[in-house]
Amino acid sequence: MRKIQFFDTTLRDGEQTPGVNFNTKEKVQIALQLEKWGIDVIEAGFPIASPGDFEAVQTIAQQVKKMTVTGLARCQKKDIDRAYEALKEAVDPQIHVFLATSDVHMQYKLKMTREEVLASIKEHVRYAHSLFEKVQFSPEDASRTEKGFLLEAVQTAIDAGATIINIPDTVGYSNPTEYGAIFKSLIENIHSEKEITFSSHCHDDLGMATANALAAIENGANRVEGAINGIGERAGNTALEEVALALAIRKDFYQCETNIVLNETKRTSELVAHLSGIPVPKNKAVVGDNAYAHESGIHQDGVLKNPETYEIITPTMVGVTQNSLPLGKLSGRHAFNAKLEELGYQLTDLDSKEAFKRFKRLADKKKQITDKDLIALLADQSREETEAFKLADVQVQYSSNGYQGAIVSIINEKNETKVASRIGSGSIQAIYNAIDELFQQTIELTEYEIQALTGGEDAQAEVRVTIRDEKTKQEFRGIGVDFDVLQASAKAYVKASNRFKTTS
Ligand code: KIV
Ligand code: ZN
Question: What is the assigned CATH class of domain 390-503?
Fold first, then answer.
């Protein structure tokens, strides 16, 4: 059977989702989970883009042992040098060089002729190959590139040393018939003494990213790129979990194998959802909460008689935990650590001590602590550790007739406690006004969402906010989970504000 390699770009293209900015610690956490999930190649970032990106790629390159680690670079020497610096300690480094080849990109964005583009590919792929054994080249906007020129660009990259050719459907314009045909034609027409890996990279603007990736595989691609939960630029990338399950469930049709550990799928999805602040829609294929729920009587009856009547994927196959052992107030350290291990966490002693303290505080208020509660608690803890400003206290004075008042205190990066009090027409507005004062910021709250994290009347509240900086038009997201709605709202806003502060 053919082996399909999985290339994850959650930390690069996925991070291009508006409002998503992972810090290095979060990136490492995601990378280690991706390694467990069985990813073959991780695109850890775009090293020249910022010092933060560089640091994250370098740290991941140092920590990851099984996956190939790659970083993105434009066709520019300084990008390639920076990628080399970041990746040189990786066990298996790879560089990903790209240059646009469609007429519209060359004419308006690059202002380069076809000849100049070919010369640049030759020069920079060759340079990249002098530093890296594994060079991947992407002709950006390949699916809208004139076919003859696409073949020329790809052949130029191969002649200069690239052994991996990625074909991006950059704007999500293609369809499975067309996109598959591009692979078939390139594979039939390129010349190379070395084995060339063809890779797909699709965006979901027309909702065809997964179908296009599968069409590429049917037509000879041996590598598929995408992001967890399909996050990414605009409508996002191919959702890798969908491709993984399609290949597994329809092995009879695709006749392919992968290294993906299917029962780590749900956990990987939840981690990315928590750290990115982008929730998984309930009806999302493979990882949505409703993907395994059967509502109609006829369906329920069928599933009770034989699950195969309406269930092509079983929840256990993707690691949907049944909460077989929820924790409670009386659970001790041992049970708590065993649960963390079952959920796939490997915490340092210090982190697990802090997590246990937080767990005990929550267990005082909530009868049963479910897996979701724990995942949220750990995500909260890891975010807070890296925040410059930490929420210390929130007090609200409520009046059913008029303005509300809030007093908020935070601990700043110098470990000083700062307090501000403000009013607002609602309690949350009063809290947010006080936080704005503490951060000395003028920003716009563009989204506020609240939902219960689990069922039950003692469920924790999960609040998601997006704030927008009118000057730069940049957005920042934050999630707060707490037993109390006002506290969860304050946590979410402090998180988003920390992200704004570190970027501005
Ligand atoms: O969508 C795209 O074209 C990309 C390239 C940089 C590969 O993300
Ligand atoms: Zn992309």
Answer: alpha beta
Determine if residue 288 is left, alpha or beta; phi over 0 gives left, psi from -120 to 50 gives alpha, anything else beta.
beta
pLDDT (tens digit per residue) in 307-317: 888 889 988 89
For residue 166, the ligand 1 atom closest to its alpha carbon is 7
The response to whether residue 138 sits with its C-beta less than 6 Å from ligand 1 reads yes
Is the four-CA dihedral 136, 138, 143, 147 of positive or negative sign? negative
Return the CATH architecture of domain 2-276: Alpha-Beta Barrel (3.20)
For ligand 1, say whether the CB of 204 is within 6 Å of any of its atoms.
no
Measured distance CA(60)–CA(94) in Å, rounded: 13
203 marked as binding residue: yes
Domain residue limits, the chain: 2-276, 333-380, 390-503
Q: Whose CA is nearest to atom 3 of ligand 1?
A: 170
**How far, in Å, from the CA of 100 to the mean position of ligand 1?**
9
Q: Rounded to the nearest 10 degrees, how much is the dihedral formed by the CA atoms of 35, 36, 39, 45?
A: -30
Please work out whether the CB of residue 140 comes within 6 Å of at least one atom of ligand 1. Answer: yes
Q: Which of 201, 202, 223, 237 for mutating ligand 1's site (highest number of atoms within 8 Å of CB)?
A: 201
The token duo for 34 is 């991706």
**Residue whose CA is at the smallest distance from ligand 1 atom 5:** 140
- The reply to whether 390-503 shares the fold of 2-276 is no
pLDDT tens for residues 71-116?
A: 999 999 999 999 999 999 999 999 999 999 999 999 999 999 999 9
